[in-house]
Queue: 2 jobs
Job 1
Amino acid sequence: MWLFIGFTQLLSIMTCLLLWWFIKPKRQSVKVHLVLSVFIVNNGFLLYGLSDFWGERFNVYLVSGILQGFMFYASVIVAVLALIFYKVLKRQPRPKLLRVLALTTYAFIVSLAVFNAYSPVVHRLTVTTDKPLNKPMSLALVSDTHWGRWFGNHQIDKLVALVEAQHPDVVVIAGDIMHDTTIAYDNTNMHEHLSKLKAPLGVYATLGNHDYRGYDEEIAQAVEAAGIKALDNESVLLNDSVWLVGRSDDVDQTRLSADELLTQVDTDKPVVFLEHRPSMMEEIKALPVDLHLSGHTHGGQIFPLTILMNWFSPLNYGTKKIENTQFLVTSGYGIGSVPFRLGTRSEIWMITLQSAKS
């Protein structure tokens, strides 16, 4: 809590300085009102957020902080450009133009962050296994949908259309299906929209950490009611040729080890392992798993976390082959706690699994 209190005060000081430069207040009363307003508003958001720590109210506090962080990004960009034009190119200072540029840059950063969050793209990957497979199988990977107040029916419809256009054989969802609860899902009738997500060989999902915050049974039931099979430490044979193994999230104290789960399957056939987090890569790489699919990291979601997260995760985002296992960590389709992505973009992955022997 003290961390957020201190961070909020630093953020308030930064915002005051930036607004002071932008407005150029002359009268003492305006200066006082500016400072007081920023501190009162920021600490108001802080108290509102802490009243529902890590809940919906706290997300509002995070949005406020991130929007101010984007002000800092805009100021850095404008400062660098000003340095180039005024010091390097020896141009005459134009303060008004600089302020217009600052406002335009800020608007661009916010717009880009919202666009990245709500405009998904499709990435593709081909994985070749040494195990026999009569014909290639296509899988659509979706993760971290976080269905909730800020990400609902419109984005579900967009996901359904996006998946239908790719014609996958199977769809897999790597956890964090909903944002903590089923409240928004139920209140806005998301079931009617999610039940349209289909594939010839089925739609399968595992639960993520946000699905285990007291509503795991309700979320699993809602998913099953929408025609999506929840794989809770179990496996299914797809088209009599590929094993799909699903494991619950790290927070589930009863979950099985990957080695235990593989005793359920014939590892002479291709094995696709689905779970929420990429935290157990060391465990997986030593096993006969051909493809490991996960999400959770959001790829960092917002710069500079897109870089810093690389220090805390064995694979923050993208693909990596280790020994005989191909790992894929998606940045996810949804937005999590805040409706912004900067340095990442909402996405799904289309994976083609094929055999080198075919």
Job 2
Amino acid sequence: MIFTQLLVVITSVMLWWFIKPKHTFGKITLVVAVCIVSNLLLIYGLTEPLYERFHVYLVVGILQGFMLYTALIVAIIWLVYHQLFKHSFSPKRLRVVAVVIYIGIVSLAVFNAYSPVVHHITVTTNKLLNKPMTIALASDTHLGRWFGNRQLNKLASLIALQHPDVVMLAGDIMNDTTYYYDKNNMHEQLSKLHAPLGVYAVLGNHDYSGNQVKIANAVADAGINVIDNKSVLLDDSVWLVGRSDETDPMRPKAAKLLTQVDTNKPVIFLEHSPTAMNEISALPVDLHLSGHTHGGQIFPMTILIHWLQPLVHGAKQMDGTEFLVTSGYGFGAVPFRLGTRSEIWIIKLQSTS
């Protein structure tokens, strides 16, 4: 509620400055209209149990928030211009600049969300590995209203171009339900993910939303092995251990899962969240893969999230374990990324010997 009223103030001020209503009636109408529309969207967002309407409200809210970014940038441009040339922009020119900046911010945020980049990293282990293993990692597809068949087809194509030995998905495959997955027949596109050693996935917090059984079945039907709290030996040389999300009340300790494997071989630990770094680093795990953070997704959360997570994005070695956190291939409730970008990681695991 407070967030909505703050957006009402921001939007009203920006539109007031842009439109410049001359009469009292116009000024009152502008503020009342923004207030009514914003609060009706809030009510609309709260009247549906699956949160899909709430996501629509969030999209509009983020677009309103981008107005604040526009205002700050325009103010900085005006100040710099005024200091350099000792005179100000004309009001009309400044409004044109504001429109261009706003369109630029929205366009960049959409581009970052839907235009993935492929990162490469090499990870070494001192355990015996007969030949290097190439792993494709993606996470947080959040299949739903804003993300579906076209993006899945692109994911399969980009991964196929890298020729990985194995593909791993680090959770939040669906955005809370399989409703849009089923409605838009995403099964056909998800089934395109292939690799010689298989495709493996764990579930994330949005998968553990009360629909985890249905989501796991849908993922398995697409030919993907769901390995929550299971382990599998890849190519008779590397152990892959999967763990359920921390929202799972039955989630086991990592040490218990490692009793299922031979830790003299390289061990890859796959789970959704990177919050268990201290727990994992004390164990004979060579590579820990996760997602969940979205890298903060939208500025300023891209900065603030560093206070909440031990590793927000990228790789970090800790006590002999290499940790890698992807910001995700998709996004959360809103189809925007500002300060982050959709991504896939290609990891080459090799032995030092």
